[in-house]
Amino acid sequence: MRHIHPDYDQLRTVGKNLNSALFKELTRDEYKIAARRLDAIKKGKMNFESYDQFDKYTDFCINDYVDINGENIVKRYQRKHHGTINTTDARILDALLSSQTSLFQILSSDTESATVKLEDLLNGGELTITDRGLSSSPGINSFVIFSRILTYGEDLHITSGAAMLFPNRFRDMILQDY
User: Fold this and answer.
1) Nearest Cα residue to 149 out of 89, 103, 87
2) Hey, which residues does 138 pair with through a beta bridge?
3) The pTM is what?
4) Residue 151 clears pLDDT 90, i.e. is over it
């Protein structure tokens, strides 16, 4: 019997709390600037059609928005709270800073170990991520996923939580548009 990686649940739980703290680092103006970049401002107000859309906005704000000093929010938080960040938070921040997004073909899944094997369609290679929800989703092998992958050593890779799933029939169109 294969088991779920022992660090998975802790990193997921702490990561959610840390993401909230990171999101609070943005100023009111930065919230609006980031929303404009994602075309999420309607009639002068931020407008999100779903929680999923807001989740992607949050991921963008934390990882991809760069402030006037050239820092993303993760780097700013790390600098601002230097010396007071615990080991687990530091591990997550380092993983966020070294993460990248890509489009992946889902090859297989294993509910016992909560793992999903992926082929990186943009950069080449394969990796196995740990994701309890994704691994237990029926028919998941008929999808491609665009996601940010956080790496915690050789044996643990986790999505950032703002993944986008597309049916396989859109794979070639996405790759062509990319």
Assistant:
1) 103
2) none
3) 0.89
4) yes
For residues 114 and 68, give the distance between their C-alpha atoms in angstroms, rounded to a whole number.
40
Strand partners, 116: 109, 129
Cβ atoms < 10 Å from Cβ of 93? 19
CB 5 within 8 Å of CB 130: yes
Place of tokens 């999505």: 159
Mean pLDDT of the chain: 92
Distance CA 48, CA 140 (A): 26
Alpha carbon distances (Å) from 65 to 49, 55, 68, 161: 21, 14, 10, 17
51-66 burial, b if ≥16 CB within 10 A, otherwise e?
eeeebbbbbbbbbebe
Buried b / exposed e over 130-160, threshold 16 CB at 10 Å, is bbeebbeeeebeebbbbbbbbbbeeebbbbb
Nearest to 171 by CA among 132, 136, 143, 130: 143
